[in-house]
Amino acid sequence: MRRLFALLLLSLFSAEPLRAVQPDEILPNVALEHRAREISGGLRCLVCQNQSIDDSDAPLARDLRILVRERLVAGDSDAAVRDFVVARYGDFVLLSPPFNIRTLLLWAAPFLILALGLAYLWRRSRRLVVPAAASPLSDEERKRVDALMQDERAG
């Protein structure tokens, strides 16, 4: 029984992540299927937002997977297929958008936020008031403190 439980546990942890690709979508040509998986792994599901179309069960993702495979069977290159999908849906469909003038803010935002945070901390640290060193007591103040101390002791 222990052996069966261990085998079941091992099979759960070693299972390959399930993909949403349906059996009827898989191309008979292994090389084309590999290219299709590479391309669809880099395309965002527009319904799920942070999932590739390869991992999504959404109907739109299925349509895009089929479209990618149809374009590959028609003889398009990987770049041509990506360009075709981007032309229809924009740069948002790419899971890692290209670096260009339209996506400059997207790529620069983390560095801008870091710079603003560091500038804020620097300015805040400069504003901290450091207490001045205590000045020594004058003779008159010392006599008064001594008198108060004697009164306290006599109490």
UniProtKB/TrEMBL annotation:
GO terms for cellular component: plasma membrane. Residues 9-149 form the CcmH/CycL/Ccl2/NrfF N-terminal domain. Keywords: Cytochrome c-type biogenesis, Heme, Iron, Membrane, Metal-binding, Signal, Transmembrane, Transmembrane helix. Pfam families: CcmH. GO terms for molecular function: metal ion binding. The chain crosses the membrane at residues 104-122. GO terms for biological process: cytochrome complex assembly. Gene3D superfamilies: Cytochrome C biogenesis protein. Residues 1-20 form the signal peptide. InterPro entries: C-type_cytochrome_biogenesis, CcmH/CycL/Ccl2/NrfF_N, CcmH/CycL/NrfF/Ccl2_sf. Belongs to the CcmH/CycL/Ccl2/NrfF family. PANTHER family: CYTOCHROME C-TYPE BIOGENESIS PROTEIN CCMH. Possible subunit of a heme lyase. This is Cytochrome c-type biogenesis protein. The lineage of its organism: Bacteria, Pseudomonadati, Pseudomonadota, Alphaproteobacteria, Hyphomicrobiales.
